[in-house]
């Protein structure tokens, strides 16, 4: 599942008429880099949620055939359902087995094929070094166990594998995912790994410009 329902307010005015996942960077739209990486790793069944200007996303990407994948869409109303609510809303499309979720506003060279394995935890998170705009981090790692300890926290990359059972006690509607992950981490039900490769949060025009420069020089 690619999360593409965010309003992209920090990216304004670029997102006034275009949903953030469809912003051009280099030779492709931002979401296309993720789709291509997933397809290369062997993921062929994708779900994309959307809200703000979401019809543009469906019109541009179509059924995914161009990228060698099949795309189902999970539309949301108004400002969207936040991360937790958006995933819960799409569960009927995601099946009964663990599934990969990727934020639609990141750029990374993470090898997604590494996540085509079964995890016994309810969630498996990819953590990265803390960017300058988020120095406090989100979670710590003790071996492969994700904890909420205050020391040596890393940033959640927006890449994770979730088991549908993670959402067993949730209800339809708008809700964030972070509190649920923290609760499960306190119960030792969340695993993770530290990734040191390329990862960028493309949340502002400045970050988009920096990525464009990087891609030009690559």
UniProtKB/TrEMBL annotation:
Gene name per UniProt: mpg1
Superkingdom assignment: Bacteria
NCBIfam families: NAMPUrTaseMurU
GO MF entry, a single one: mannose-1-phosphate guanylyltransferase (GTP) activity
CDD domains: NTP_transferase_like_1
InterPro entries: GlmU-like, MurU, NTP_transferase_dom, Nucleotide-diphossugar_trans
Gene3D superfamilies: Spore Coat Polysaccharide Biosynthesis Protein SpsA, Chain A
Enzyme Commission designation: 2.7.7.13
Pfam families: NTP_transferase (PF00483)
The protein's name: Mannose-1-phosphate guanyltransferase
Keywords on record: Nucleotidyltransferase, Transferase
Domain Nucleotidyl transferase span(s) in chain numbering: 1-126
Record has Secreted as a keyword: no
Broadest EC class assigned to this enzyme: transferase
């Amino acid at each position: 599942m690619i999360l593409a329902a965010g309003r992209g307010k920090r990216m304004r005015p670029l997102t006034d008429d275009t949903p953030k996942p469809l912003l051009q960077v280099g030779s492709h739209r931002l979401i296309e880099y993720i789709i291509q990486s997933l397809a290369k790793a062997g993921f062929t069944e994708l779900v994309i949620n959307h809200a703000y200007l979401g019809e543009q996303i469906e019109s541009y990407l179509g059924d995914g055939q161009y990228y060698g994948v099949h795309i189902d869409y999970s539309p949301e109303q108004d400002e969207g359902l936040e991360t937790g609510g958006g995933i819960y809303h799409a569960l009927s499309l995601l099946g009964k087995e663990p599934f990969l979720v990727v934020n639609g506003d990141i750029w990374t060279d993470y090898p997604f094929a590494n996540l085509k394995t079964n995890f016994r935890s309810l969630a498996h998170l990819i953590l990265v070094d803390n960017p300058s705009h988020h120095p406090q981090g989100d979670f710590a790692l003790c071996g492969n166990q994700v904890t909420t300890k205050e020391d040596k926290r890393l940033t959640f990359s927006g890449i994770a594998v979730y088991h549908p059972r993670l959402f067993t006690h949730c209800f339809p509607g708008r809700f964030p995912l972070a509190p649920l992950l923290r609760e499960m981490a306190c119960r030792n039900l969340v695993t993770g790994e530290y990734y040191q490769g390329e990862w960028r949060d493309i949340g502002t025009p400045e970050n988009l410009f920096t990525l464009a420069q990087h891609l030009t020089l690559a």
